[in-house]
Design goal:
GO terms for molecular function: mannitol-1-phosphate 5-dehydrogenase activity. Keywords: NAD, Oxidoreductase. It catalyses: D-mannitol 1-phosphate + NAD(+) = beta-D-fructose 6-phosphate + NADH + H(+). The longest helix is centred in the middle third of the chain and has 24 residues. By secondary structure, the protein is α/β, with parallel strands linked by helices. The protein has 2 domains: about 280 residues, 3-Layer(aba) Sandwich (Rossmann fold); about 200 residues, Orthogonal Bundle (N-(1-d-carboxylethyl)-l-norvaline Dehydrogenase, domain 2), CATH 1.10.1040.
Length: about 500
């Protein structure tokens, strides 16, 4: 057994890939907020590939955690010299482990906010990237404007406040760079939000305007916010993943990352200064990301929502179980072909039919073991962005919405907190209490769940949507998820 540290790299077996570059020669160039599994399986992996090719050594990543639960990542990464193992899981059971070295430091903001600001203000930092989840942008789901009611944002708006939120750090760092005559960094959102760069710019500028309107104007004019689409299924690391890495490869890693073989990154080439040569490792640099991101959000992400609640209610617990069931596969392909895909613009270089079937193959990978509980989490940030736009466009065009409506109804049924076997469901959502309280009244008031204008806008007053929603919810209550799909 070899503990994962810089000193122990040479002791790893030949089956384990490792950095071929001198990590002491890597200099920080990127600050990243939200170092979770996805960032480590995706953006950090691409940079590590570049560094292994002798490139981008001036683009080391300094991770930042702002939430209390991020302390564990700080502890693990610092114990391992910021190294971790990325394990690619193939459908045939093959595991491909590689130690990633592109993260050079990790800062826990609550302990030392000054260190975070110093790194962000340093002229060597040219990109600040984000994977802060859909909810981290504080968007009112209906108006599309900044929701400044978050306590963290409110605290950061007080005069002289030490930043505590991601937005607080971004605005303060940009203000200091402006005052010092240092060019602004590029803000690169990597979250699953349509037009993520546009959203980041709008929300951050709106927040800055509440503090300093002149600074907000400067940010709007000078800071670049490229859009991008990111894709790689990265389930939560399980104890069994740590055990497999130790038993099969002799690597003791406190927090490895597991992922599927597929990876994609489509990035708008819109940076304020220089950037890593991402195109050299397969990143698609394009002028317009929107067709790709809509494809991913409305086919992949929305299909995850289409399978997770119904699958959970039917008794499944993993995505691959659902996608090895023909009934569910037919439902997912039907949603993609008849409801999701018709709302998409042409996607350059992509065969959409092949893409849809490839998604089923990816979801069905039994080695990834992506839990339905993970896919069901934070639905209030996901359904309004990924699925409801499909519903609205289909309604406007006079096309079918039946499968999408059933997904919404299955979310409402899931939020009741009890499955079809009478077992409790742990609903994980930032709006959990409100959602569960509403869902408790689904049987006596079938429109109560969709009557929240902050999530559903005016859909509760659309006769076609309401009629199909009530029928779907009634069916889920009376005959269950599987029989409802069979009837559909």
């Amino acid at each position: 057994m070899t503990a994962l540290t810089a000193a122990g790299l040479d002791a790893l077996g030949n089956e384990v890939g490792r950095p071929s570059y001198d990590r002491t020669a890597v200099r920080p160039g990127i600050v990243h907020f939200g170092v979770g599994g996805f960032h480590r399986a995706h953006q950090a992996m691409y940079l590590d590939q570049l560094m292994n090719d002798g490139k981008a050594l001036g683009w080391g990543i300094v991770g930042v955690g702002v939430l209390p639960q991020d302390r564990r990542m700080y502890d693990v990464l610092h114990a391992q010299d910021c190294l971790y193992t990325l394990v690619v899981k193939y459908p045939d059971g093959t595991l491909e482990p590689r130690v990633i070295g592109s993260i050079v430091d990790y800062l826990f903001a609550p302990d030392d906010p000054s260190a975070v600001l110093d790194r962000m203000v340093d002229p060597g930092t040219r990109i600040v990237s984000l994977t802060i989840t859909e909810g981290g942008y504080h968007v009112n789901q209906v108006t599309g404007e900044l929701d400044a009611s978050d306590p963290g944002l409110a605290a950061d708006l007080r005069p002289g406040a030490v930043p505590g939120s991601v937005f607080g750090f971004l605005v303060e760092a940009l203000a200091r760079r402006r005052a010092a005559g240092v060019a602004p960094f590029t803000v690169m959102s990597c979250d699953n939000i349509p037009g993520n760069g546009h959203v980041a710019k709008k929300m951050l500028t709106s927040f800055a305007r509440l503090k300093d309107p002149e600074l907000a104007d400067w940010i709007a004019a000078e800071v670049r916010f490229p859009n991008c689409m990111v894709d790689r299924i990265t389930p939560v690391t399980a104890d069994s993943d740590r055990a497999a890495l130790a038993e099969r490869f002799g690597v003791e890693d406190g927090w490895p990352v597991v992922c599927e073989p597929f990876t994609q990154w489509v990035l708008e080439d819109d940076f304020g200064g220089d950037r890593p040569p991402y195109e050299d490792v397969g990143v698609q640099l394009v002028e317009d990301v929107e067709p790709y991101e809509l494809m991913k959000l409305r086919l992949l992400n929305a299909s995850h929502q289409a399978l997770c609640y119904l699958g959970y209610l039917a008794g499944y617990r993993y995505a691959h179980e659902v996608c090895q069931d023909k009934l569910f596969v037919d439902f997912l392909l039907g949603y993609m072909a008849n409801e999701g895909a018709p709302t998409l613009p042409p996607v350059p270089g992509v065969d959409l039919d092949r893409y849809q079937h490839q998604l089923i193959e990816r979801f069905a990978n039994p080695e990834v073991r992506d839990t339905l509980a993970r896919l069901c989490a934070e639905s209030s940030d996901r359904i309004p962005k990924w699925l409801l736009p499909v519903v609205r466009e289909q309604l406007a065009a006079g096309r079918e919405i039946g499968r999408s409506v059933l997904v919404v109804a299955s979310w409402a049924r899931y939020a009741e907190g009890v499955d079809e076997q009478g077992q409790p469901i742990e609903v994980v959502d930032r709006l959990r209490d409100k959602l569960v309280e509403r869902a408790q009244h689904n049987r006596d008031d079938p429109l109560v769940f969709i009557s929240d204008p902050d999530l559903f806008g005016d859909l509760a007053s659309n006769e076609q949507f309401v009629t199909q929603y009530k029928a779907a919810l009634k069916s889920l209550h009376e005959i269950g998820a599987r029989a409802t799909l069979e009837a559909l």
